[in-house]
Amino acid sequence: MLKIAKEKDLVAIVEAAVEKHGAHADVFIPILLEINQNFGHVPGEAIRLVRSKLHQPEDQILVSESQLYGLASFYDMLSTEKTGRHMVQFCESAPCHVQGGRELWRSVQQTLKLKAGETDPEGRFTLKTVSCLGVCGVGPVMLVDDDLYGNVEPEHLADIFAKYE
Ligand code: FES
Q: What is the pTM of this model?
């Protein structure tokens, strides 16, 4: 399950991430990843805070807020949108696709009542597609948070999703 930190923890989490990784241009991604892990996404306020921490007088690197936002939007592992408590990542690459993935994808969307990139109104699940997860031999494959499910069939979905509140 994704651990979702409260907004009030934001300053402490950003400060801890900057302290851990350093206030340098080459550690933006690890800092943003840590924020993403805590909140399930990278809030805009966190981007402003990171920038203020990195933009110290002795630091010659001037990085704009929009550049940081661009980084957060670019990487698949980061999200600038608020996500659900559980992230469902469905492999859409060809080997899984031909092993039943196409039918399973339809069932996943019907079961969750979501399309790729959407989060349900209760904030329970976010659904997204990903490229090969490296376990094609047990396709079709999907991840729910850190749990990997292989050889998934449509009739397994209700039991799988019921494990996540
Ligand atoms: S194609 Fe799905 S895990 Fe490789």
A: 0.68
